[in-house]
């Protein structure tokens, strides 16, 4: 089936791949993260309205930024603990 918005499809695939890459270091494990990510994307597979697709992409980008912030915070706490910074 041909998608009506190929540019949006490209964005969705890109954000999916980026999230998969971020999931490699997720605290609960990669397989758990991948399964949940797959479920979330499958849930929105039937979207056909351009605005709804864009809103879903924005939500995925927000999740991506939150995961990155989680990793930076984890790294900061580890370094702080390791070097006994007060």
From TrEMBL:
Keywords, alphabetical: Ubiquinone
Classification via CDD domains: Complex1_LYR_ETFRF1_LYRM5
Keyword Ribosomal protein recorded: no
Keyword rRNA processing: no
GO cellular component, one term: mitochondrion
Protein's GO biological process: negative regulation of oxidative phosphorylation; respiratory electron transport chain
Record-stated family: Belongs to the complex I LYR family.
Protein name, per record: NADH-ubiquinone oxidoreductase complex 1/LYR family protein
């Amino acid at each position: 089936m041909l998608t009506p918005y190929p540019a949006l499809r490209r964005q969705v695939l890109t954000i999916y791949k980026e999230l998969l890459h971020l999931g490699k270091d997720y605290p609960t494990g990669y397989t758990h993260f991948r399964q949940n990510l797959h479920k979330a994307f499958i849930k929105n597979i039937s979207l056909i309205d351009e605005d709804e697709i864009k809103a879903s992409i924005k939500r995925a980008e927000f999740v991506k930024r939150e995961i990155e912030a989680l990793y930076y915070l984890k790294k900061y706490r580890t370094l702080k603990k390791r070097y006994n910074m007060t």
